[in-house]
Specification:
About 20% of the residues lie in helices and about 25% in strands. The protein is an alpha/beta fold. The chain folds into two domains: about 1-135 and about 255-320, 3-Layer(bba) Sandwich (FAD/NAD(P)-binding domain); about 150-250, FAD/NAD(P)-binding domain (3-Layer(bba) Sandwich). The longest helix is centred in the first third of the chain and has 14 residues, at about 75-85.
């Protein structure tokens, strides 16, 4: 069994930021990541640009420079990779932690690598920075498990000339619809809201509304997909149920934390399904277990959370240091 002072689960931007802050108080944390560094960003749409300006995404005192107003996904991957390397953060990639068990003032962590080899650790402090993106909000409707359905959008090219239904009305849904329309996809957006979401980026909304007004994109409000079949979808709306010919479905309905993993570790859940923690210290109801990043974002989970989540590590470091 490997013994560590602190273990951070998740090597996203907020996990890396937490590692840097812990190093600043004399700890040498081990970051364990079940995939690659900043995996969630690597899963973003290929040509995506962030909402935030580069300085709002910086960690570890390293400047984030870009020639554009908003940094791209590729620039972010390079930036966070470089930040981890410059701070010599210990990242153990492609290894999953499956269980955390309290043990006499410390924690036992059990996991396995990508080859199925078991791993075990003991650590005084555990910071959970796992994000949400492995756990999409499922629709719970017939046909959702078909290969034509995805909860992620990477790029538009595979959908050239296809009939694509997008479920959702957030920024991710609007951006996907615009990209798909540009390559000649037949796009229908199905949204349960009565009108456009207030969170849609102000510089994107007018162009999208123009596409809808011209009939380039079909927008269905007060509607929901109730069934998915090989060649069509069934949509329930104000006029009743209709069937729409369909080749692919992008269910961009958001994500949620791994509640089972958290509750098995002793972390309680609030009534709305979010983990319990102190926002001043980021410590959960289990002494010594902390949250960092989007897993602590509650209602803001489906937006870019790096801007504020990058400071969680500082709160954690200050709390740990005050108790030494």
């Amino acid at each position: 069994m490997q013994t560590e002072e602190a273990i951070i689960i998740g090597a996203g931007p907020c996990g890396l930021a937490a590692a840097i802050e812990l190093e600043a108080i004399g700890l040498r944390p081990l970051v364990i990541e079940k995939r690659n560094i900043v995996h969630s960003i690597s899963q973003y749409p290929t040509y995506m640009h962030f909402f935030s300006t580069p300085e709002l995404l910086e960690i570890g005192g390293i400047p984030f420079t870009t020639a554009n107003d908003k940094p791209s996904r590729l620039e972010a991957l390079n930036y966070y990779r470089t930040a981890a390397q410059r701070h010599h953060i210990r990242v153990q990639a492609y290894e999953a932690i499956n269980r955390i068990t309290p043990d006499s003032g410390s924690f036992l962590l059990e996991g396995e690598d990508r080859f199925g080899q078991k791993r075990s650790y003991k650590s005084r402090y555990v910071i959970i920075a796992t994000g949400y993106f492995d756990h999409p909000n499922e629709l719970g409707i017939p046909g959702e498990q078909l290969d034509k359905v995805s909860h992620f959008f990477r790029e538009s090219h595979p959908y050239v000339g296809m009939k694509v239904a997008i479920i959702g009305g957030s920024n991710s849904a609007i951006d996907a619809a615009l990209e798909l329309e540009r390559v000649g996809a037949d796009v229908t957006v199905v949204y349960r809201g009565e009108d456009y979401s207030s969170s849609i980026k102000s510089w994107v909304k007018p162009g999208f509304q123009s596409k809808v007004a011209k009939g380039s994109i079909r927008m269905l409000f007060n509607s929901q997909v109730i069934a998915i079949d090989n060649n069509d979808i069934t949509v329930r709306g104000p006029e009743g149920d209709i069937q729409i010919p369909n080749d692919f479905v992008l269910a961009l309905t958001g994500f949620h934390p791994d509640r089972y993993f958290l509750t098995a570790s002793g972390v309680t859940m609030e009534d709305e399904g979010y983990p319990t923690f102190d926002p001043d210290t980021m410590e959960t109801n289990v002494s010594g277990i902390y949250l960092a990043g989007v897993v602590a974002s509650r209602h803001e989970a489906n937006e870019i959370f790096i801007e504020s989540g990058r400071y969680h590590g500082r709160k954690i470091a200050e709390h740990i240091q005050s108790g030494k």
